Amino acid sequence: MLDRRSLLRGLGVLGCSAAAHPFLTTVTLAGADGGAPLGDHRLVVIILRGAMDGLEVLRPWGERGFAAYRPTLAATERLDLDGFFGLHLGLSGLHPFWQSGELAFVQATSTPYRDKRSHFDGQDLLEAGTSPDLPSAHLRDGWLNRILQLVPGLTSETAFAVGRQEMRILRGPAPVMDWSPDTAVNLSPQAQLLLEQVYQDDSLFMAAAGEAMMLSRLDLGDEMGGLAMGGDEMGSMMMAQTPTPALRGARLGEADRVADYAAERLRGSTRIAAFSLTGWDTHKGQGKGFGRALARLERSILRLKSGLGPDVWGKTKVLAMTEFGRTVAENGTGGTDHGTAGAMLVAGGAIRGGKVYGRWPGLAEVDLFERRDLMPNSDVRAWAAHAIRGLYGFDRGLLQDKVFPGLDMGDDPGLIL
To answer: How many domains does the chain have?
Structure first.
């Protein structure tokens, strides 16, 4: 007879490191009966690392002189949104969201970070939710974690940091769970059968093991949904989710797996999830690299909606934000350099979409920040604060004092339904 200890000791021979098992770390540590102290709404925060060019995502083609700033980049086709702004074709799969009111943008927004244009400092301030003039101690916690610190009865399954990169936005004393695609288990069919036989009487371990098996076999090559297992496998763990036509036939990448896992957790007791997407630092050849980054963002949102299902998606808001924008003018290598104001993408069934929010500052030289960047007209933290207040009912004073120190939220922009 093979006992559990012998099985775990032998898993390394079967191609799986016991130290990396999700069912030995993340999944089994989650509170199964934790409930949902934040209510029924969901919030997903996507950090776009590298400074996304908001003028490329949301081109102001109604602005006189814009094409002169970008003779190469501005020559490509766009989807008209409102007669003034045009959407990059890399997000064309989200255009139906715009038409149905499930997609919006905030243009000319920024953190309080100015002048130095360092990715590291900019991302630290974005995820800390503070301003550069506050003491460095405020950088220790992320603003999402500070929200969780205000919630009584919180469990580690309420919020998930998903993906390989550290999510400082969720760092702090409040309990948060992490998951990375690195931890997916790769067992042979024989090893999986052996695992089922040894643990068939342990429902807790079987549930966690089933989740780990599911994560290891995520693949869209068979045109099945992302999080799917057969009805008899591992205690009938996961439901099948049929992907949208835009997702069928595509090989599952890491960003897809991250979005799938986030959606699976959010269907349960998790209420807040955060992950990041890279590839936005487009100093040269922006026309090619930018499209690939947008494709990952588009697929992440499509997979979130597909994985959540209509009921949960209708209670969800997705905020995709970046550390700063890029220069108005393209450079000599067909790219753009670090700038100031940029754009935020907002999606979900809980938003009032089909609109570009924020006041457009104009592109005349006197209207630019330091005569080179889009002028910031709003604080990105204010949009996040109003989203949190609208979704979860947090007190305005707490948000301005505890969660986003030094912030003046201003009037409610009405983005949440």
So the answer is: 1
Residue ranges making up the domain that contains 71: 33-182+255-403
Q: Helices marked H in 189-325 — which ranges?
A: 189-198, 203-216, 254-266, 286-313
Burial class (CB within 10 angstroms; exposed 0-12, middle 13-18, buried 19+) of 397: exposed
Closest CA to 238 of 285, 307, 302: 307
Domain assignment present for residue 202? The answer is no
Does 394 reside within a domain? yes
φ, ψ for residue 352 (rounded to 5)? -100, 90
Does residue 417 fall inside a structural domain? no
| Rounded to 5°, angle at Cα 117 from 113 and 119 | 95
pLDDT band at 139 (very low <50, low <70, confident <90, very high): low
CB 46 within 8 A of CB 276: yes
Measured N-to-C along each axis, helices 203-216 and 189-198 cross at an angle, to the nearest 10 degrees, of 170
Structural contact between residues 94 and 347, judged by C-beta atoms closer than 8 angstroms: yes
Residue tagged 């190469």 (tokens)? 72
222 found inside a domain: no
| Contact indicator for 329, 79 with CB cutoff of 8 Å | no
Yes or no: say if 347 and 298 are a contact pair by the CB < 8 Å rule: no
Task: Give me the count of residues in the chain.
Answer: 417
Question: And the tokens for 90?
Answer: 């890399």
Angle, in degrees to the nearest 10, between helices 286-313 and 254-266: 20
Q: How far apart are CA 272 and CA 22, in angstroms?
A: 20
Q: pLDDT, tens digit, for every residue of 302-337?
A: 999 999 999 999 999 999 999 999 999 999 999 999
Report yes or no: 304 and 319 within 8 Å, Cβ to Cβ: no
Query: 3-state class of 111 per DSSP?
Result: coil
Beta 78-80 vs 378-379: how paired, if at all?
unpaired
User: What is d(CA 294, CA 306) in angstroms, rounded to the nearest whole number?
Assistant: 18
With a threshold of 0.85, does the pTM exceed it? no
- Other C-beta atoms closer than 10 Å to the C-beta of 226 total 25
